[in-house]
Amino acid sequence: MALSAEHFMEKALQICQEAASSQLAAVHDAAAAICDAFESGGRLWVFGTGHSHMMVEEIWGRAGGLTDVCPILEPSLMLHEGLLKSSLLERQAGLAASLLKIHAVSAGDCVLVASNSGRNAVPVEFAVGARAAGATVIALTSLAHSRSVTSRAPGGQRLFEVAHHVIDNCGVPGDAILSHDPHPVGATSTMVGAMLVQALVVEIVGQMHTRGCTLPTLLSLNA
Q1: Considering the domain boundaries, does residue 144 fall inside one?
Q2: Residue 223 has pLDDT above 90, yes or no
Q3: What is the extent of the structural domain holding 194?
Q4: CA dist., res. 38 & res. 56, Å (int)
């Protein structure tokens, strides 16, 4: 089939459907962990590097979203200061330790770490450090991609190997799903990831309501 918008949307929707059906239990379990944290006075932190930082922005400050989210948006690890800069820094061992000193993740908290490849040092070490602090770690990653590569973290672990809960975005190794020379095109990690984190938010609100607690949520400023 020739490359086209129709071809991409057909294949991308298949991945969305796969994630929606196969990851529902993981979303339920992650939501339950976050609800447990909220009930005990803990916080929800969200962190990602590179393009995965968009999962932080997706869950924080969005209409219909939770008011009580602690975003970790380190400019040097995002894209607007330079693609090469962020790509190099997210591989830097030891940087996560500094971030954990700035952002006081503690026992009883939950931390959602998004990393499509799950191999770079900063997200892996951040998850390891958060877990050592007593937090529950939830990974949003591509298991197919992560299992196809080695870790860049000094400990040799990938994100899914250090998390308590793993939500798989069901993407392919390399993210882009349509064959093309010299490189595949059409990435899906952001669109599927956004769907999964929004499903997580809705599940959190629903579970807390069942527990007898109404969580504060945000109304669009443009409504």
Answers
A1: yes
A2: no
A3: 23-210
A4: 18
Query: Domain for residue 12, yes or no?
Result: no
Q: What is the DSSP-derived secondary structure letter of residue 217? A: B
Please give the full DSSP string across 142-183, using - where no structure is assigned: -HHHHHTS---STT---HHHH-SEEEE--PPTTSEEE--SSS
**Looking at 4-13, 86-95, 122-131, which range is the least confident one?**
86-95
* Residue 103 domain-assigned (yes or no): yes
Asked if the structure places residue 174 within a domain, the reply is yes
Residue positions counted in the chain: 223
Tell me which H or E stretch contains 37.
Answer: helix 24-39
Q: Is the full-model pTM beyond 0.85?
A: yes
Lookup: tokens for 97: 């330790």
Number of domains composing the chain: 1
β partners of residue 196: none
Query: How does pLDDT run across 54-94, given as a tens digit for each residue?
Result: 999 999 999 999 999 999 999 988 999 999 999 998 998 99
